[in-house]
Amino acid sequence: RGFSIALLDSNRVSLFPSLQSPMARRRNGHDRGARRGVGVKAVLVCGMPMISASQWTEAHDGVSSAPVWRNMAGNCLDLTKNRMYIYGGIASSTTYGDLWYFDLSANTWTELNDGTVSSPTVRSVHSMVLDTTNDRLYIFGGQGGPSWHHRNDVWYLDVAAATWTQAHGGSGTAPDTRYRHAAMMDNTRQRMYVFGGYHWFTSQLNDMWYFDIVSNTWTEAHDGTGTAPSIRGSTVMILDTSRDRAWIWGGWGGSNDVWYYDLGSNTWTQAHDGTGTAPPSTASYVAGMGASNNLIYIYGGSMNPDQLWYFDIQTLSWTQVTDGTGTGIPAARAWSKGPGMGGVTHSPLRLYFYGGSGYNDVWYYTLPTVASPSPSPSPASVVGDPVSYFRGKRWEFSLPPCMSLLLKVPDMELWGQPFYGLMGEQWIEHLSVRAGGAEVASIKIKRDIVLHQVSPPPQGSFATLHLTIPEIDPEPLPLIPQPCDFVHSTGIGLVCNQARYLPGLKGLGAPPREAVVVYGQFVHLIITSSSAFEYYMNGPLAAQHAHLDIDFLYMKNESSFSGLLPEVWGLRPLSEATARLMK
């Protein structure tokens, strides 16, 4: 179980484990049966993200054995079958109701349903999403038919049988009729989410609804008032399974801002205001999530020329990949990349788009391999005396003098206690991880740390930490287990590693960095021994100020978090007790 060292800045270094898959754990005899497969990995990156070579390729010229060219068709990708589905759309004055799929491996088109028997009314600017559990394609809304009627009905196509079924007619509790809206499928919750769009020709929307595909019922999750994106249409909504969020960007009526919707708490947060380095505001673009679940790619739409960008969810920053100029690129066209008319595949990593305005071709862009700091910056951290960082913001606060609850998530709790430095400042000296009413681990900084080059600790033991795992031993472990990899009976996992020094500081007497990784279903975090940077040149002072830092590598369902830290970060209302601790 090896660790990588990621140099985050001149003051900090973090250690990241490579946790084995459940299958690998069973092969090696480590599986305890209670833990789900989770992983944490890190990439060493210094400076800007690294981009490899990439290019455009025409996958199909659209001349033969292909759908009739069209704009504004419903579209989605099936990454399991390696297919791109399209349904409906419009060309000139003709609206279509046929459904085709493009085989991304064979580069061939197949008509799955011609739309003539027991089918939805022909339509365009509707949404289509994939239900992977039942292998169904769901469509919602759009416009078409007599007098360009606007719709709010729900249909699904059984892919195996190639037959349509109406799931909801649109009466009763349901969203307003709409088109140019955004939609996505949450296969975990078995819900189709719908955001915004146009209601008739003049009214734009910013409400959020979801359709339960089990009960075939609609629920309004957010009415668009309060903190929410502005009204908009022709945007794309991307599911972020790692963080349990839905992301949107741009669209008509909006700007080039980025927002995410927390699916657990049903709340909106603006992640980027569109200023600084960012794509031009656009609508009707192609978008998709990369394989790492950290990068959202967007391409084309109403921007001119058609540029390709990605948004890094961890750093909340934009990077341009192409400027839309040069040779060997798709011809410019209006509406060629309408809402959902394309997407991102993961293996290989490509961005696909189809047709539009007289074109019937399929192109893909081999996306760059981006080494993005992972997790740098981390989702959150607590360092120093103490300071916390969360989503790019910084807070200074104090801790209660006794052991107090820092963070509670559904499957574990993190408790902490400080000590006081020479000037009355606080540092964390003791952290306790608890689950199911039991202590999983106790991590304390040693208070008798010596100058390591003068009197090194016994080989195989911790130099700076007291680690107690009560299920193994009620006393601090005398030696570091080999391997130091433990899964508690509650399913909470622990990994620890021997000392690491900051580069160039090994001989200066500062305590080394040692780490304990704690991981569950909702958070992964690293607890490291550390020291005030200003004391690195003075061994005795460095040892005296040795303390614990915390880096959170992964967070899920933040709406379920409670404790002091979620109040500091703004995830929970600030209580009077916590307000008194803020600096």
Question: Which of globular, elongated, flat, extended, rod-shaped describes the shape?
Answer: elongated
Strand arrangement across the biggest beta sheet: 31-30-29-41-40-39-38-37
Instruction: State the share of residues found in helices, binned by percent.
Output: under 10%
Rg computed from alpha carbons, rounded to a whole number of angstroms: 27 Å
Mean pLDDT: 81
Structural class by SSE content:
mainly beta
Low-confidence stretches: 1-54, 335-340, 372-377, 501-508
Largest sheet, described in full?
8 strands, antiparallel
Structural overview:
- The chain is mostly beta strands and 583 residues long.
- The chain is 4% helix and 42% strand.
- The protein has 4 helices and 41 strands.
- The chain has an 8-stranded antiparallel sheet with strand order 31-30-29-41-40-39-38-37.
- A hairpin with a 3-residue loop joins strand 39 and strand 40.
- The longest helix has 6 residues.
Which terms summarize this structure?
8-stranded antiparallel beta sheet, 41 strands, 4 helices, single chain, elongated, mainly beta, 5-stranded antiparallel beta sheet, 583 residues
Strand and helix map with partners:
Layout: E1 3-7, E2 13-17, H1 22-27, E3 56-60, E4 74-78, E5 83-87, E6 90-91, E7 94-95, E8 99-103, E9 108-113, E10 127-131, E11 136-144, E12 149-158, E13 163-168, E14 182-186, E15 191-199, E16 203-212, E17 217-222, E18 236-240, E19 245-249, E20 258-262, E21 267-272, E22 286-289, E23 295-299, E24 308-312, E25 317-322, E26 342-346, E27 349-356, E28 359-366, E29 380-383, E30 387-390, E31 393-396, E32 404-409, E33 412-420, E34 426-435, E35 438-445, E36 465-468, E37 485-487, E38 493-500, E39 513-519, E40 523-530, H2 539-544, E41 547-555, H3 564-569, H4 576-579
